[in-house]
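Check this.
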Amino acid sequence: MTVALVTGSNSGIGRATAVHLARQGFDVYASMRNLANAEKLQGMADQAGVALELVQLDVGDDGSVRRGIAEVVGMAGQVDVLVNNAGVGGNGVTEECTIDLYEEVMNANLYGAIRCIQAVLPGMRERRSGSIVNISSVVGKIAHIGQSPYYVSKWAMEAMSEGLAQEVAPFGVRVAVIEPGITKSAIFAKNVDAPNQTGAYDAHYRRLFQFYAAGIPAATPPEEVAALVHHAVTTDKPKLRYACSWGGAEIVAGRQAMSDEDWVALGALEDDDEYYARFSEVFGVDIRV
């Protein structure tokens, strides 16, 4: 049986992925910082008629990652699939974000994934098989205004994943990056801060929250991402990157087709309605509500 470790399994994409993989016959170890938060996960697993092993693991802490993955290996013998899902949001423009905030977000979103990868990769390399799935975001491909710590961490994850994929290819280890747009998740309810310390960036924060105001009502279920994770680790025609969820594919494709000069010009638009119209024209996503 294929052993899968899914981090951040207490909510959203992680929870859906843990249950979905278990339904597909995987031996799933669902990790989270606090096992007291596993109630909804356990309820979903019971409803689906599957069993999960719960593991306490804080991706932001070296010792916790070592202990958690050692526990999984002790019970299952190995980790065949690692899904790096645990992470946090982080709003703010560059000028107004503290270094402490950047460090907090990077520690969870990038360093946390690297900690887990380093813990499972020796075994995968030795067996010459395994899959690593990193849950990035659409902002891993587009530096969306007002979320500097978040998109910086996700761009870094994209770069790390791209390099990792080449590094481990000779050992038969597969790497996939999932780039969701807006997916139904508790992270949005927690991600409402807007420092706006200078007052100079009112438009940036307004446009950020306008984007989510349009997207959240149309957000796709996390089960869509979970199914894509399963596809990424089982398909015989693997890809490195998969965009999905509301706005995901459209925004990634739109940015790829857009020149850097046009990207900068979009940010220079002072009128909100003109900005929203141009955003819709370029990305095929209407964020006016």
The two ends are 47 Å apart (CA to CA).
